[in-house]
């Protein structure tokens, strides 16, 4: 692969191959920096990346995901080296607090660190990679926005294991951490476009008892009991404790916001008391609607995504694009349809290459003033 592009996929995560590539790139870009994306199957290779980058004196930040995205394929081997001509400001925060007061302080610190780096460059994106096991990402985003508002665009994704078991998944040149966030401040960057293509069911309910990403009650009744009734009434399927893991991903919740924007929440765990754990927070008294996977409008989603990229960046033909694709979306659409979406995206955009990962939640601006929202079941794309 030539050194003219800034996205480089290496099929083997080996010291010699990485060092050779970094040496090539440093010859062109002496102040080279790297954001590395590793698949979960290669998680034991973080040390290799750290060692080589230390030896070559190349700044490193990165994350581990269930799989990588390369053009029209999902890959479970290799590594993406997403390159910067000069490493932007980045910071790795671990063990983020979950208590509301402590979370406010953590968000304030992150925002203050970013604010200290903001100059008069008109387009800057706060790019965030969270550990998917952080249960209060939405709250942290809200608090960060209170301090930074529209001085930056917001984009990002969740890293970690598709099993939703705790795993250190964020790293820099010295550390590998969990329950944290990696932030990078991208300059001369116009942000990302995020789409899911779901259309709402007119029936709504209320999440009357929640804690973080756990829904205990819907309409003052046990959450799973109401969930079973909604799936039966609207879609004619019987969901039981035994088949929940088979069905849950096909019938996610949508949180209906005041502007009618729908934020998808996929239930991934069921507790003995009938509570539902979702990927991402569900605020108390959220208005919920039940969604169904077959109603995803793939053509509409890809059209909106592609047109959104063009509105932000102009013609993206021949560009290198970054894409995060939700693991939950792949589960409920199936591998074949998800791969078809990847192929269609690459074809519609005429990108020189598409790099990214299978993610466990996505971050993008809403349609109102770029307010950052945490989503499930989406595609989030940007120019690199």
UniProtKB/TrEMBL annotation:
<feature type="domain" description="FIST C-domain">
    <location>
        <begin position="223"/>
        <end position="366"/>
    </location>
</feature>
<dbReference type="InterPro" id="IPR013702">
    <property type="entry name" value="FIST_domain_N"/>
</dbReference>
<dbReference type="InterPro" id="IPR019494">
    <property type="entry name" value="FIST_C"/>
</dbReference>
<protein>
    <submittedName>
        <fullName>FIST C domain protein</fullName>
    </submittedName>
</protein>
<dbReference type="Pfam" id="PF10442">
    <property type="entry name" value="FIST_C"/>
</dbReference>
<dbReference type="Pfam" id="PF08495">
    <property type="entry name" value="FIST"/>
</dbReference>
